[in-house]
Write a structure and sequence with these properties.
Distance between the termini: 56 Å
Number of domains: 2
Shape: globular
Number of strands: 6
Order of helices and strands: HHEHEEHEEE
Largest sheet: 6 strands, mixed
Structural class: alpha+beta
Radius of gyration: 22 Å
Strand order of the largest sheet: 1-2-3-4-5-6
Strand content: 15-25%
Length: 144
């Protein structure tokens, strides 16, 4: 019986490790740490669409807060802003401003024919403030 248990332990461990490894590897588990660093630097194929977004909403007050608008995928824009949220209750003036930025960028993408826009509005410190098109936030432009 001891030999059977000794043989089954490595087999069971091998199956467990194989099952845990399905769909990824140890390198994939380390990816989130490097992905956050990579997300901070623009990719070679990112396109600055700041001027186009500005032109789509001439005179809109929310555009004053936008520092850059970057098309990171055919249907996704990351809008960097000067907005700083005091992280108080939902509905702060900063949150309303960020939601207006989001709505404006969504309107721009829809105006270019994008059927499923995805928008991230970033605070001045680089943290995510408002999302649109994210599976966890289905109610339009949402403060996160």
């Amino acid at each position: 019986m001891k030999r059977t248990a000794a043989l089954l332990l490595p087999i069971g461990l091998g199956l467990t490790l194989t099952a845990c490894g399905e769909g990824g590897s140890a390198d994939a588990e380390a990816a989130p740490a490097t992905a956050s660093v990579a997300a901070a630097a623009p990719a070679a194929d990112d396109v600055d669409v700041t001027n186009e977004v500005r032109a789509s909403a001439p005179g809109a007050a929310w555009m004053d807060a936008v520092t850059t608008a970057t098309l990171t995928e055919p249907n996704r824009i990351v809008a960097e802003t000067t907005i700083t949220d005091p992280r108080g209750d939902n509905g702060s003036p900063a949150a309303h401003e960020a939601i207006q930025v989001c709505q404006g960028v969504v309107a721009y993408l829809q105006g270019t024919g994008v059927a499923d826009p995805k928008v991230s509005v970033m605070e001045a410190d680089g943290s995510t403030f408002v999302l649109y098109g994210h599976p966890s936030y289905l109610d339009g432009c949402t403060e996160v």
